[in-house]
Amino acid sequence: MVVAGKASDKLKNLLNQAIAREIQVSIQYMWQHVQTTGPLHHLLADELKKVAIEEMKHAEQIAERLWYLGGTPTTAPNPIFVGENLKEMMERDVKDEEEAIELYKEIIRVANEEGDITTARLFRKILEDEEEHHDFFTTVLEGL
Description:
The chain has a single domain (9-142), classed as Ferritin, core subunit, four-helix bundle (Ferritin, Up-down Bundle), CATH 1.20.1260. 76% of the residues lie in helices and 0% in strands. The longest helix has 28 residues, at 41-68. The chain is mostly helical.
């Protein structure tokens, strides 16, 4: 059972990796929203903005959980890649979502091993969102 302020360093480090990733993609997707051009701009810009905001909300939720567990949330994002064109953007976004899915499955596994059902539950919900984002980016990429 998890006690306030108690979590393994491994789990806290994984949560910080997740925060860095969420900050990265929230900025990345927002700038893609701003910089998308061409005939698909109006179809994609709003969805990119929506996904960017969802990712920032994930960062907040993870940071709150990490703080509760006695960790300090990072403020440093992973490297941000906007892309020169829509195909580059979508290829990178698909890759970033795939990496998130793998990371979040690992977090769920570690949290379950440590008896931290709250963190596991939080990441099951976030994982659902990330799979939806992956589906969106994959679908757009297939149409290019």
